[in-house]
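Researcher: Structure for this, please.
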Amino acid sequence: MAHRPKLAAVLLVAATALIVPAAPAAQAAIGPLTWSDEFNAAAGTAPNSARWRYDIGGGGWGNNELQYYTNRTQNAAHDGAGNLVITARRENPAGYGCWYGSCQYTSARLLTAATFTQAYGRFEARMKIPRGQGLWPAFWMLGNNIGSVGWPQSGEIDIMENVGFEPSTVHGTLHGPGYSGGAGVGGGYMLPGGQALADAFHTFTVDWEPNAITWYIDGIQYSRKTPADIGGNQWVFDHPFFMIMNVAVGGNWPGSPNASTVFPQTLTIDYVRVYSYQSGGGGATGQITGFGGKCVDVAGANPANGTQVQLWDCNGTNAQRWTVGTDGTIRALGKCLDVSGGSTANGARVQLWDCNGTGAQRWTYTAARDLVNPQANKCLDATGVSSANGTPLQLWTCGGGANQKWTLP
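Model: Predicted structure, C-alpha cell format:
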C-alpha cells in the first residue's frame, strides 16, 4: 500500500509477506527486566504518568487518520483487573477540531519518550486488539533522536500493527531512510484457521540486537531483518528508542469505518515488559557429546572460516569447548557453528564461521535432544550414521535417530 510522506512521530507500515514458520526460533541474548508496567492500578485510573505520556490532537498524524487523541480516562484507563484499556469512541464530547472538520472519533496514544528509552533488548506486550473496519491498533517504537534528525532518519520499529480488514494478520515492519512508508521492510503472520486476533490475548515481541531485529507472536518467530534486507540503505537501529501504544481510526491504510464497525472498540493491554540485551551470547560452556559418545569437534586449533565441524574422541581441548548462547548461537574458538552458505538442504555442511547473526547460525535445543536449525527446520546430524573420528556434521531432516541426539553443557 502507498502512504503520503510521514511527519515526525507518525506511524506508517509497509505491505508485508505472510510467513508461517516451520519451527520455533532461537532468541536473542536477553538479559534482566529493565522496565515494565503490569497495569495493576484501580479501575478508572489514568495510565501511570511516571511511565506514559500522551500525544494529543486531531491533525491526521500524517496518514489522514480520523481520531482526536485525548488524555481523558474515557480513552485510556485501568480496568481494575490488571489491564490498561485504550478505547476508541465514535463521539466528539468537547467540540474537538480535526483536519477534516469536526472530529468524529476519540482515542488515545501513549508514549515513553519522556520517561524511558533503551537500545537493544526484548520489547514485549500481551494485548487483546480491537476489531472492525477502519481500526488500526499498534505497539511500536521511534528513535529518541527524532526531534533532531526527523523521521525516517530516526528509525521506526513496528512491533505490532493490525488493520481491521485483515482480522487474522499481524504486521511487523522497519522504517528508515530509503525504506519508509509503503517501502518499509517487514513481515506478517496470519493466525491459522481464520482466527481473529481480536478473539483472544496475544503476546507481541521483538528481540532487537546489533544488526538484527526479530519479530514473534506468541513465541512464534515470523520475521527477522538485518542490514542485508534494506537494499543498501542506512541501518538506523543502533541508538535508544521509545515505545508507543495507540488505536487509530481510519487513515490511508485501514480506510474509514463503515456501517459494520461497532464502537466503542478497545485495545486491552495486560503488560508491557522490556529486557536488556546481553552481548557475547552468554550461556553454558563445555563439551557437546553425540553419537557413539563422541564430542563435537573443530578440525584444527586455529580454524579459518569454513573449517569442518566433526565428531572426535572427547579430549578436553578448546576445539571441543562450546558456549551455548542465550542468543541461539553455539560458539567455539571465537567463531559460530554455521550452516555452509545458509543452505536449508539435506546434506548441507556444518562448519565454523565468524559470528554474523544470520539464521545459518541459530540453533534450538529441543526436549528430545535435537539441535534444530530453525531456518531450515532440520537437525544437526552425524553424516552416514557414523561415529568414526572425523565424521563431518551436516543438516538433515529430523528423524529421531541416535546420530541426531546431542547432550549440551
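Researcher: Any notable elements?
Model: Residues 30 and 277 are 5 Å apart (CA to CA). Residues 146-149 form the longest helix (4 residues).
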